[in-house]
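Students often ask why we bother predicting the structure of a whole assembly rather than each chain alone. The short answer is interfaces. A chain on its own may look different once its partners are present, and contacts between molecules only exist in the joint model. In this exercise we take two input lines together and write out one structure for the complete complex. Read the inputs first and try to guess which parts will touch.
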Amino acid sequence: MARAGKPDEKPIYDSARTVSPFVEEFRELARYRDLVKHLIARNIKTRYKRSALGILWTMLNPLLMMTVLTFVFSEVFRGAIVSKSYAAYALAGLLLWNFFAQTTTGAMSELIWGGGLLKRIYLPRAIFAVSALGTSLVNLLLSLIPLFIIIVVTGVPIRAVAVVLPGPIILTAMFALGVALFLSRVAAYFHDVMEMYQILLTAWMYMTPIIYPKNIIPEKFRWLFKINPMYHLMEVFREPLTGGGMAGPKTWAAATVAATVTLVFGWWFFSRKADELAYRI
Amino acid sequence: MSLLIESEIMTDGATANRRVSDETVIRLENVSVEYHAPREQIRSFKEYAIRLLQGRVQREEFKALCDVSLEVRKGEVMGVIGHNGAGKSTLLKLVSRVMKPTGGRVWVKGRIAPLLELGAGFHYELSGRENIFLNGTLLGCTHAEMESLFDEIVDFAEMGDFIEAPLRTYSTGMAVRLGFAVATARQPDILIVDEVLSVGDEQFRQKCAARMDSFRENGTTILLVTHDSKQVAGMCDRAAWLDHGRLRSVGDARSVVDQYKQFTKGLASQR
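Now the answer. The structure tokens for the assembled complex follow.
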């Protein structure tokens, strides 16, 4: 079964073996990495199998949203803001937000879907959160294509610093996985957490400068941004794409700390009760 | 209609001795499982919060298994009998690592194949091919292993050209055949069977039975859980009888079944 090790070596399971669940979950996940790939493939394929536009839809959806927003902000709220980089700004913001929102909600619904399986066969419990993350990562990478087209078309200069792009994506992935694991454990106990989270997610989105430029928020409310991890991640991701150059070191530091702490906490919170999840779902 | 009974799996002493080795593959040492569950299933957070404020969350201790010690040797066909709620499925879950004991120790050596719910995790929009890989990796195989087993699975399940068609176009029989073929594609060290299943038509059932027989001949340990004591007496080497989470008796299948039957009769006459 294990790829390493001699072929005739039998795997041994011993419930008394004392490995911390934190490490155990990680090790098992590595062993089941092929399943992660197949779960991601399943998610992507089944999403598009019966739709005429297929995979194009991933790219079109945020583009349509961006078009509406650009119209609203440049025509309806005339003069409110709007530089020529607004389209790229809104699209970049939406893509990163969707990545986060899809990962966290996907993790919960997949865990609840997989609950029947977890009661019958052994699987690393975190596998559903990880495959939800992988699925939304594929979607994000696909939708970067229209983003770059918009950037070029609207004439926003792409700075050389855009090469740091994988950095913010990795940080957001870490943050999203941490939140996803935390929510998964809670949702396994209480199914209505999913609905409550949808409301929270909407409120959270409006508290993060995604569709509006951050300078329209009065100075006295700006502290709300400072305590919002998604704000820092958003800045780090978006600045180089909208002509602003690299985000400042403080912003990078805040994003890195938020992502790391959230992931470690989420992993710990989830894995310490992972064995119980099977009969809670 | 049971799959195993129709086969030649009926044991006689001589073959059993040849098959079974001295090596222990499953060992339970003073195993207990205790649930610490809320008395009523509280499914919603709102409800839970309200009850918590009112101080109405009552918890209940429930012992699913209590101080069970059991050893199963390599190549043995071990039956587990008992009434509903006696702890049979908890025992299976412990062995298949779905659940951890709250007391004692569970030790299992070898690769486990659960024959519990065939085709668990099948997706109906995906093709047969895609489902083989998804299901196989769910059961713990790697992609490379599934690739090498692929042709044999398609062949055994008699899929033919349907293998590229989405599963929703399959008949129930076809889907179950595919499930069985994937679950048993590789000979496991330990096969877990929860209630004997009947799969597909007569001819396919015989194929399944032959495959199970060959596993048994080649040293697979079989753990069979059922409440049909006749099956246990017919096909198991040894049996364990669970009653209210305690191990009442373990030993030669027929004598354990006899004890169990007497006990059940006693209960019936008391009423």
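Check your guess against this: The first helix of chain A runs from residue 21 to 31.
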